[in-house]
Amino acid sequence: MADPVPFLPVAAGSQPSLDQPSYVSTWHRHPEAAPLRIPVTLTEASAPRFEPRWYAPQADLSVTEGKAALGERIIVAGRVMDENGRPVSNAMVEVWQANAAGRYAHARDAHDAPLDPSFSGRGRVFTDGDGRYSFVSIRPGAYPWRNPGPGWRPMHIHFGLHGPGFAQRLITQMYFPGDPLLAFDAIFQGSGDEDAKQRLVAALDPAVGRDEWALGYRFDIVLRGRAGTPFEAV
Amino acid sequence: MSRATASQTAGPYWHLIDFPEWADLLRPSGPNADAAGERILLTGTITDGTGAVVPDAMVEIWQAGPDGRYDGTFHGFGRCATDAGGRFRFVTLRPGAVPGPGNATQAPHVAVTIFARGLTRGVSTRAYFAGDALLAEDPILALVPEARRGTLLAQPAGAGEWRLDIRLQGEGETVFFEV
After folding, report:
1. What CA–CA distances, in Å, run from B110 to A44, A175, A176, B42, B164?
2. Which candidate from B3, B100, B175 shows the least CB-CB separation from A222?
3. Domain containing residue A192
């Protein structure tokens, strides 16, 4: 059996460092030793196939049991590609977020803002053959956290994706354009270089929205690529 | 060609996408309900650099089936939230040996990735099975300094349980990999 094609090296400036003095929770949790570099094996080059029959899609977060969530309705759509420019098809995209008031439907979220019984804040969609996904939600609110600085996280939606290799697993956050809290947020500011940061900010896109119904935001995602073409049959 | 999107922490509220049944890879309602093999528990406690337990981590595993295949019928993915004591617990089947680089054979192992508040990226390690005859020829373990190999060896804890404690930082720090 041929060895799996290696992944491209992590591009300089594209990723946050694990040790971030301004993000207090990293202090005792980041490994001190540099990760040990190993050759890619089948373990990293393969990944689970998430079939919708076992992992049911939930593409509309804005309605729960027929009741509309409070807040500004949005459509989020984009394309998942790899660094080689190939669309990532049939990828499971998980999202989670706070409600419009900035509160998570989570037992440990003690923020004194109202819960919305019509908003769970979780969704799951799959990319199509062209790598495209979309879901409907409401715009999340900012919320306070205990970290030095203004102490409020900018509006964001968490994204989790699995690619065709377990080493391509990505958890990230999508932010909203023009949010003044971005300038103060330790997590966003620690994402990498300026390009890395700006690509975490979605674009307001009328083509994604629906007239008189929802604003649209485009958020494209890129997973690690391969230093070659892994799937060409010889 | 664009660079990969930056990773961000999963934060403290990722449990909105925690489905506790996913920690049981053999769940009757799941894709492995009919899978046959040696049933095991893979457990452990995650601690930080102060020795405090990490009670809000997302632990994901990926493994081959008992036949050593990733593309066979066994769906080797699981996710588990650590509990208040920092513990995780998966129910699965012991994986088979997997082909490695060249003509090497990898000893049976489970890939483990941890996400959490305070981790800006997932950190990835492996759980091997202490005492396995193939450990000596595993090409990945051979790259790990001998003094740190123990951090990758799950130990038998009775009744089919294999325990691998994970230390994120400091003395006894787990070996994390990158490819």
Report:
1. 11, 34, 37, 9, 11
2. B3
3. 52-223
Tell which of B1, B8, B167 to mutate to test the A interface (max A CBs under 10 Å). Answer: B8
Let me know: does A188 contact A200? Beta carbons within 8 Å: yes
Q: What is the domain-level CATH number for residue A181?
A: 2.60.130.10
| CATH (residue range B14-167) | 2.60.130.10
Mind listing the pLDDT tens digit for each residue in A14-44?
Answer: 999 999 999 999 999 999 999 999 999 999 9
**CA A227 to CA B50: how far, in whole Å?**
39
A157: its two tokens:
């939606």
Phi, psi of A72 (to 5 degrees): -90, 115
For B28-51, the pLDDT digits (tens) are: 999 999 999 999 999 999 999 999
DSSP letters for A120-135: --EEEEE--TTSEEEE
Helix (H, G, I), strand (E, B) or coil at A180: helix
Catalytic residue status for A158:
yes
- Residues 6+ away with beta carbon under 8 Å from A35: B123, B124, B176, B177, B178
A20 neighbourhood in chain B, CB within 8 Å: 120
From the list B100, B104, B128, B123, the residue with the least C-alpha distance to B113 is B123
Q: What is the pLDDT of residue A228?
A: 80
**Contact between B3 and A42 using a beta-carbon 8 Å cutoff:** no
Tell me the two tokens of residue A205. Answer: 């896109």
Q: Is A143 a catalytic residue?
A: yes
Q: What is the count of structural domains for chain A? A: 1
